[in-house]
Structures are given as structure tokens and as C-alpha cells.
UniProtKB/TrEMBL annotation:
Lineage: Archaea, Promethearchaeati, Promethearchaeota, Promethearchaeia, Promethearchaeales
Organism: Candidatus Lokiarchaeum ossiferum
Protein name from the UniProt record: NADPH-dependent FMN reductase-like domain-containing protein
PANTHER family documented for this protein: NAD(P)H-DEPENDENT FMN-CONTAINING OXIDOREDUCTASE YWQN-RELATED (PTHR43278)
The UniProt record lists the keyword Chloroplast: no
Keyword Flavoprotein carried by entry: yes
Entry similarity comment: Belongs to the SsuE family. Isf subfamily.
Keywords tagged on the record: Flavoprotein, FMN
Superkingdom assignment: Archaea
Domain NADPH-dependent FMN reductase-like: 1-133
Length: 472
């Protein structure tokens, strides 16, 4: 059989750690042909010649199956592969993919690899491909015979599906787009932003679009128009997508000589208020947004929006794309920012959109003045534990800047530093070996759990507490 390997890595297949898994499979399945298509490398500048694009499509057309391969970049696929997927729709060549069996191979640290897999399965469903599954790998998997065996079995299952023409189940229904046209009403600016800068980042290209109108409505809600800056990603000189070279890990300096690093440092990092305004494109935003997110990697694994109040203006069927909604929450939390609101045009009610935008503008300023950030959930806590373990170990070699940041901010929080609780836990584990003690404790477990909060509440001086809160 012929398997087309769509390589989304910006690196050549001979130096890509992701493609090392393919070279292994080539050795293990010599009876099959694996045609490697380096679309990531060809689209580093987000452009590809028509002939090269058609050559790739013809190989896919003649293949029995398609294996999408890529490193996970900022919770999704690389911008280069995102652009390739956009071109499929823009050029109307979906038929080259119809009914092809498909699978996904990704390499990552297991940091939001699931959102990348969700996206790719949805894309395969949209292209009417027969999606078999994904394999999430780390590069060191090839060093472990048991994990190599698992990878071998995954490919065996994929090839078995193709050979026996087995049916597959679809997970994602087609997106339904609306023709609704947002008609904003004149707004009286009432939100005082004189002491707080508001930054709106967008990729809008059509001044008559719903998104452009929503941006204008938000800006007009603020009293000080001069303190609202709208930045279009297409006005920033970004020469290409992240190359995955990791050279920035030593001193946060990117190999590209363009405007991105300066723009990010001066206009994005730790701004008091940031609005992301975007239209949905397939199951995410446009490749320009993905380019922006990927290039943030020059800043390492350190949060870049600490304390920022985040708002979103989204044009498109966001509620039909739960994976994107999770990405919005995850990116905000992992940036240690505060998600104030996400406003879309999908409710098809101009008056409600106006009210929502006005309310978000007010909330952005108020929460910024309070310096409020929602407590982290698993989205942030789990993600940072992945990076903590990496950077504490082998990761300190390529990412010394990250190591310094984590150390300075006391983020190497293992083993637990709660020594008193550890001592109590060890003592209780000994005492609980006695049945009578164990049963007595079982009847009082509820009171034990609430003991410390109740003790604090009894001692609470409300007036003193209020004074402290107001002062803070």
C-alpha cells in the first residue's frame, strides 16, 4: 500500500524528531511505500507554488491512506500545517482527500496534545476522510522497546483498517455558518480608560465584516479613544513560522530578524488589558493567528500575560467548536491572565451584542483596577506541572532562561513543602493500621476537614479584614 505522510514539521524529514518515527516504520514495514510530503518546510513563509501544491495533492490522491504528522506547537498544529489545511478549502480541492483513511502522529511533552488531536480529527471529518485515530509520542519513545512496540501496533491497526476497508465513526458534525449581519447602534462612551491602556489585537481584513464592526463598537465604548490601540497582525513584519530550532531557549532571542520580538515585548507582554478579535477559520482562527501564537515560543515556557485582563471578540460558530473554546480558556490561564468575557456574533442579535460589548468594556477596566485574576484550574495547574518536570530535569539544558524563571518564582514545588502536613500524614498512616482508631476517625472525617476553616472564621475580625481588603 501507499501511505502519504503529510509532514507538518518545519524541519526537513531527515532532521525532524517527529519523522524519526516514520523512518522506524519504514524499516518495519518494507512491503509498504511511505511517501513523505514536507508541507511544513515548504510553507515556512506561509506560501507555496501552485505546482508544488498540486504535486502534493496528486500524491495524496494516489495514496491508500494519509498519515498527518507534526510536533505540537502552542496547543495545536504548527502554523505551516494550518496554512496548508486552509489552502485545501480556499482552492476547492477537498475531493483529493475524500474517503481516504487518515491517522495522526504527533510529538510533544503531552502539553495540550489532546487539543491538537481534536482539531485534526475535526479537520479529517470536515474533509470526509476516514479517521482511524492518533498516536501521541515523545521522542524518547523510540528508546523504549515497549513503546516502540505500541507504535508498531498503532500502525498495524491503521494499515489493517485500510486493507480491510473497515468503517469508522465521525465525531464532529459539519459547521453551520450564519448570514447574520451585525448592525451596531451608536454608542455613548461611558467607560473611563484614561488611566488604563486597552490593546486590541486582530487579523481583520474586511472593514465591513461583523468582526470589524464589533471592534469599532468596543473602541467607541471607551472615553479616551487615544488610549485604545488596535493592532492588525497583518501590519506586523513576521517573516515566517516557528522553526522549532530551540535556539531561543538560551536567551529568548529568536533567529528571525523581523519585527515580532520587539512588537511582542513592547505591545503584548503584561499589558493591563488585551482583546483578541478574530474570525473562526475551519476549527480555529486564521493561520496568521497561529503564526502569532507559535512565535511566542521565543519567550520560552514563561507566562507572558501575567495579570492581564483578557477579552475576546469572535465572529463565527464558536459554540460549535468546543475545542476552540477550551483553547481560549487554556491559553488565558497558562498565560496567568484573567478571562473577562468571550463575545460572539452567533446569537444573531445586534442589540444583545451591543450590550455585551459595553458590559465587557466596563468589566475590563473594573477588574484591571482590582488586579483580579481567577484562581487557576487544572488547565493551568496541570500544564505547568508538565513544564516544571521538563525544566527541572533535562529541559534546563536547552531552556536555561526558563529554569531561572521557574526557580526565581518558586515554581519547583516538589516534593511538597508542607512539612507539617506530611508529618501528620505519615503518623496517621501508622495509626490507621489499628481498626478502632481508623473507624473512629471515619465517623469524624467531616469535622476534621472543616476544622481549619472553622478555626479561622471564629477568630475573624470582620472590620479589620475589610480595611485590609480596601487597602489591598
Amino acid at each position: 500500500m501507499k501511505i502519504a505522510i503529510i509532514n507538518g514539521s518545519p524541519k526537513h524529514d531527515k532532521i525532524s524528531s517527529t519523522m524519526a518515527f516514520i523512518r522506524y516504520i519504514e524499516r518495519m514495514y518494507p512491503m509498504h511505500t511511505f511517501e513523505i510530503l514536507n508541507v511544513g518546510m515548504k510553507l515556512v513563509r506561509m506560501k507555496i507554488a501552485d505546482k508544488s501544491f498540486m504535486d502534493i495533492l496528486n500524491i495524496i490522491k494516489n495514496a491508500d491512506g494519509v498519515l498527518w504528522t507534526f510536533p505540537v506547537y502552542t496547543m495545536l498544529i504548527p502554523a505551516q500545517l494550518k496554512r496548508f489545511i486552509e489552502l485545501i478549502t480556499e482552492k476547492g480541492v477537498d475531493d483529493f482527500f475524500t474517503n481516504k483513511y487518515a491517522a495522526v502522529l504527533s510529538t510533544s511533552l503531552n502539553f495540550y496534545d489532546h487539543t491538537a488531536h481534536n482539531y485534526m480529527q475535526a479537520i479529517c471529518d470536515d474533509l470526509n476522510m476516514k479517521y482511524v485515530g492518533f498516536y501521541s509520542a515523545k521522542i524518547d519513545f523510540l528508546m523504549d522497546i515497549k513503546k516502540r512496540k505500541n507504535w508498531y501496533k498503532f500502525m498495524a491497526n491503521f494499515l489493517f483498517h485500510i486493507e480491510n476497508k473497515l468503517p469508522v465513526s465521525k465525531r464532529y458534525p459539519p459547521l453551520i455558518y450564519s448570514n447574520f449581519e451585525y448592525q451596531p447602534t451608536a454608542v455613548n462612551p461611558t467607560v473611563d480608560n484614561s488611566k488604563t491602556k486597552v490593546t486590541i489585537l486582530t487579523d481583520v481584513r474586511d472593514s465591513s465584516s461583523n468582526l470589524a464592526k464589533m471592534i469599532s463598537q468596543l473602541k467607541n465604548a471607551f472615553l479616551d479613544q487615544s488610549n485604545v490601540e488596535i493592532i492588525n497582525l497583518y501590519d506586523i513584519n513576521i517573516k515566517g513560522g516557528c522553526l522549532g530550532c530551540i535556539k531561543c531557549g538560551f536567551d529568548n532571542k529568536c533567529v528571525y530578524r523581523d519585527e515580532y520580538v520587539t512588537f511582542f515585548k513592547e505591545k503584548i507582554m503584561n499589558q493591563p488589558i488585551m482583546i483578541y478579535a478574530a474570525e473562526t477559520t475551519d476549527r480555529f482562527y486564521s493561520h496568521r493567528w497561529k503564526l502569532y501564537f507559535d512565535r511566542i515560543f521565543h519567550n520560552g515556557h514563561t507566562p507572558s500575560l501575567r495579570g492581564t485582563q483578557m477579552g475576546y471578540l469572535i465572529s463565527g460558530p464558536l459554540t460549535q467548536i468546543p475545542n476552540l473554546r477550551q483553547l481560549i480558556s487554556a491559553q488565558t490561564e497558562c498565560g496567568q491572565a484573567n478571562l473577562v468575557d468571550v463575545i460572539t456574533d452567533e446569537n444573531e442579535n445586534s442589540e444583545l451584542i451591543d450590550i455585551s460589548i459595553q458590559t465587557m468594556a466596563s468589566n475590563l477596566i473594573r477588574l484591571s483596577q482590582l488586579e483580579y485574576v481567577t484562581p487557576p484550574t487544572f488547565l493551568e495547574v496541570g500544564g505547568f506541572k508538565v513544564f516544571r518536570d521538563l525544566i527541572y530535569g533535562i529541559g534546563r539544558i536547552p531552556f536555561p532562561s526558563d529554569y531561572k524563571f521557574f526557580k526565581d518564582n518558586d515554581m519547583f514545588d516538589f516534593p511538597s513543602k508542607e512539612h507539617t502536613l506530611i508529618a501528620i500524614g505519615r503518623l496517621s498512616s501508622i495509626l490507621f493500621k489499628f481498626k478502632k482508631i481508623r473507624e473512629k476517625f471515619r465517623t469524624k472525617i467531616g469535622k476534621v476537614m472543616i476544622y481549619q476553616p472553622e478555626r479561622m472564621l471564629k477568630k475573624l475580625d470582620v472590620e479589620k479584614e475589610k480595611k485590609f481588603m480596601i487597602k489591598a
